Amino acid sequence: MTANALDALLSRRSTKLLRAPAPNEDELARILQAGMCAPDHGALRPWRYVLIRGEAIGRLADMALDAVKRSGDKRMTPEKEKSVREWLAAVPLVIAVAQKIEHDNPKIPEQEQLLATGASVMNVLNAVHMLGYAAFWSTGLGTYVEEVQESLGLDALDYRFLGFVAVGTLAVELPPLRRPDYREFVTEWTGVAA
Q1: N or C: at which end does the chain have fewer Cβ atoms within 10 angstroms?
Q2: Helix or strand run (H / E) with residue 94
Q3: Is residue 80 part of a domain?
Q4: 11 assigned binding-site residue
Q5: What local confidence, expressed as pLDDT, does residue 105 receive?
């Protein structure tokens, strides 16, 4: 990896502050192809992506917000709904993310399939950033409401819905993000009993 690529990885951050334009078709193809490069035990390729663009984003907001309200989720206040609708109105591309579950695979446990899907999404997020765009992986907008998943064509018996990746151009310049020191999260095992 070149130093520039590593610097890009070290500067990636999530942000909801998005606007148009979204990646063009060639850039989007490269972004999604990066998702195919994730580590994947057994080459199951469990990740699934559903692209939502243009007027379909407004229909997504209507469907998901209505489903969340019907689910009885008290967090969906009128103020929260207004905020979500305003945010989505500015987002030019939403990618729904799911894991296809291989229920009867004795060799590859379901948690490894989930990890592969997460790795694929991370590759997508990194590719978005490296092409000069920004993204935000959200589990809001009804991710845990089965009706939302089903409306996206992802049968809850065969898929685990994992949320939405909003993609666009940074709406405002963001200050550098201060990251924790990796040493706070790393230990070394030497094989010697303590």
Answers
A1: C
A2: strand 93-100
A3: yes
A4: no
A5: 86
178 is annotated as contributing to ligand binding: no
Is 12 marked as a binding-site residue?
Answer: yes
- 14 marked among binding-site residues: yes
Q: Is 120 annotated as a binding residue?
A: no
To the question of whether residue 187 is assigned a binding role by annotation, the answer is no
In a domain, 110, yes or no: yes
Residues 3 and 160: their CA atoms lie apart, in Å, by 36
Asked whether residue 185 is assigned to any structural domain, the reply reads no
Q: Residue 90 sits in which domain range?
A: 12-171
Residue 177: per-residue pLDDT: 87
DSSP 19: E
Q: What is the CA radius of gyration of the chain?
A: 18
Q: Is 129 annotated as a binding residue?
A: no
pLDDT, position 97: 98
CATH of the domain at 25: 3.40.109.10
pLDDT of 1 > 60? The answer is no
Whole-number pLDDT of residue 2: 63
